[in-house]
Amino acid sequence: RKGEPSLLHTLCSGSYLDVQKTAQWFCRFVRVAWLLLPQSRHWRLTLLPSSRSCRFQLSKGQESFKAEMIFGVRRGDSDIFAGSPAAEVGTPSTTWPETCAVAEAKFFRHISRQAPRDSCHCKCLQLLSRCRLGVGLSSYTLKTVLMHLLSSVPLTRWRGRDFPQRTMDILERLRCSLETKGLQHFVIGNERFPAEIPLPSDLRLAEPPNLLQQLASDPDAHAKALQGYFGLVHGLKQVLLSGH
Fold it and tell me: Which SMART domains match (predicted)?
């Protein structure tokens, strides 16, 4: 409209798409659009602080839940995106880190179509993710270990009755990775990654990054990671002993 700032000015800094400006614009759009929905008469929308996403809470009486919408720019026709999730402190707002999250989500759907109906792979990840809270190990590290095991251990050995052994396999693989300070990225450069999930050719042929490279050059970080592993094992024992 005449007199209003252009979309280029609203969303960009110079000639680069600005993730913070994009988040601010989208949140304003959500606030206005919400009032046009019939649900707004019964639910209250509260936008939560976030500079790189749209986080909000919906509440009605005692009911309440939170949600987060992140933004992404697709790389060609692949399942690799430049995304807006939280970045390291000091990262410019015009930097959009590359993410394999969509490709990884499709890998899990690929596994679910082939796995036994009572497959325990999601249960393993849920349990270990719950036990890792407060011990300093990232959920992405656990997820990567699980994905590697899913591509190497036959899916017929992931039935419900295999849950204890597969959980121990994940812990053992994690321990070895931390001790050797090596854990390859699951998507990038992985010859076993399903061909039907589209990736850019340079990522398929790339050298797999070591997700634990920092541990090789930082003894304190390595010691802290090993301490986190033993904290995870302790937390798992507590959960199993409690019967929950």
Answer: Mab-21 (SM01265)
**Residue 33 and residue 44: Cα distance in Å, rounded?**
13
> Reduced to 3 states, what is the DSSP secondary structure of residue 58?
strand
Query: Which token pair is 131?
Result: 């036990």
Q: Rounded CA gap, 175 and 152, in Å?
A: 17
The pTM score is 0.84
Question: How many other CB atoms are found less than 10 A from the CB of residue 18?
Answer: 19
Half-sphere exposure of 236 (CA within 13 A, CB side): 18
Taking phi over 0 as left and psi of -120 to 50 as alpha, with beta for the rest, 9 belongs to alpha
Tally Cβ neighbours within 10 Å of residue 231.
Answer: 17
Domain boundaries, the chain: 7-83, 101-242
What are the pLDDT tens digits along the chain (244 aa)?
555 678 888 999 988 999 999 999 999 999 999 999 999 999 999 999 999 999 999 999 999 999 999 999 999 999 999 998 776 777 899 999 999 999 999 999 999 999 999 999 999 999 988 888 767 788 899 999 999 999 999 999 999 999 999 999 999 999 999 999 999 999 999 999 999 999 999 999 999 999 999 999 999 999 999 999 998 998 888 877 765 5
Cβ neighbourhood burial of 102 (10 Å; 0-12, 13-18, 19+)? middle
CATH code of the region 101-242: 1.10.1410
CB burial class (10 A; 0-12, 13-18, 19+) of residue 61? exposed
